[in-house]
UniProtKB/TrEMBL annotation:
InterPro entries: YacP-like. It comes from the Bacteria. Residues 151-168 have a biased composition (Basic residues). Coiled coil: none annotated. It comes from Desulfosarcina alkanivorans. Residues 144-174 are annotated as: Disordered. It holds the Pfam family NYN_YacP. This is YacP-like NYN domain protein.
Amino acid sequence: MAIHIIIDGYNLIRRSPELAGLDRQDLQLGREALVDLLAAYKKLKPHKITVVFDGSAEPTLYGSRDRAKGIAIRYSHGGESADDVIRRMANREKAKALVVSSDREVMSAAEAAGATVMDSAAFEDKIAMARYLAVKGDGEAIESSGWVPTTRKKGPSRRLPKRKRRARARVEKL
């Protein structure tokens, strides 16, 4: 199943130490740095990615939808917040969506809609790990010298509920 990653843009920018510094210099600089980071991640993991920004302060020259480097960018209309747009997208996408935000209200609404949720810091760690593995490689083949004795039990461990197993599978695809 394809994953649609829906990101609360300003939330992720302001939670990230490197992006927050750029955001303090210039708002547009922070947005561009986030899109560049996500475009590099998209080259490694070809998931559909949408970043949602608050657009109430944006001039009317900008459309509510844009696309840059393969990343869909959405701005909220005047009178609504990016959180409202994210909730609406999570309701529409349901189980296909993975919502990235540190806002508790957004996370609980997305989870109630059936979407998987992830904290902004955890998503940034996933991006960093994907970049690291791309540079390092997926690992070298380890030659086995045969059977290794172990005391590990072979029976089934405690199994998570089906909904949580599916959510874990979506997160592991990142």
